[in-house]
Specification:
Blueprint: H1 3-19, H2 37-43, E1 49-52, E2 61-67, H3 71-81, H4 88-101, E3 109-112, H5 117-123, H6 127-130, E4 146-148, H7 160-167, E5 171-173, E6 180-188, H8 192-203, E7 208-216
Parallel strand pairs: 2-7, 3-6, 6-7
Antiparallel strand pairs: 1-2, 4-5
The structure holds zinc ion (ZN).
Zinc ion binds near residues 27, 29, 36 and 38.
Length: about 220
């Protein structure tokens, strides 16, 4: 990049931030980080709880940092539905801390739960990929071991049987023979999406599949 162009970009950034000062993406406070100090305090410390699942469950373990009903759930909604991607780096750092504290870095691969290309095109990004940005880049496999090749309806609007039918065969996995895989997603709800991913990865030869989630709508995490 030429020096002139670089100066122009710096000038543009200063100009834009003068007109649109940074604001907290959760409460709208001006002149602050993407999440202001008060909102971080209300989000609180993550739980870092590892839950080992019963034998036969395709998902071997799961870790959820927060409860969806807390301010942490608001962060997911703002990120995903209002496209406030400025939130993602701070959320990603918290997930990276969980990986360190719980020694989850022994996974061979990190796989963000994939979106179908159509939903990704509409949203403009995959929030699960953004949440992997502070993790070991050498291990993160964006659609390199797991893809969603079939468009599915949003799980939230379906009953149990329809959820199972909706996801069945939606994913394809490859290049994961003998690997330990850490799935990353924003929310653990019924767990069916993560389990279908885990089942697909194991059918393709993965040895172990665990899940790391920013938050959970189940009752296992205290808000
Ligand atoms: Zn705030």
């Amino acid at each position: 990049m030429s020096a002139a162009k670089s100066s122009w970009i710096r000038f543009s950034e200063r100009f834009l931030s003068a007109i649109y000062p940074p604001t907290c993406a959760l409460c709208g406070l001006d002149g602050t980080a993407a999440i202001c100090e008060k909102c971080w305090e209300e989000i609180g410390s993550p739980v870092f709880e590892v839950q080992r699942h019963a034998q036969g469950d395709p998902l071997d373990f799961s870790v959820c940092l927060y409860h969806y009903g807390s301010r942490a759930g608001q962060a997911v909604r703002e990120l995903k539905f209002h496209r406030k991607t400025s939130l993602a780096p701070m959320m990603a750092k918290e997930l990276a801390r969980a990986v360190d504290r719980l020694s989850l870095d022994d996974a061979d691969f990190v796989a963000p739960v994939p979106l179908h290309w159509r939903r990704r095109a509409i949203r403009g990004f995959n929030q699960s990929e953004l949440l992997c940005e502070a993790l070991d880049a050498q291990k993160v496999r964006r659609e390199a071991i797991l893809i969603r090749h079939r468009h599915t309806k949003p799980q939230a609007n379906l009953d149990y049987d329809d959820r199972m039918r909706n996801l069945s065969g939606a994913f394809t996995a490859f290049n994961c023979e003998g690997a330990r895989v850490l799935l990353v997603d924003d929310v653990l709800t019924s767990g069916q999406t993560a389990r279908e991913c885990a089942r697909t990865l194991k059918s393709a030869g993965a040895r172990e599949v665990g899940g790391l989630f920013w938050c959970s709508s189940l009752n296992r995490v205290q808000s």
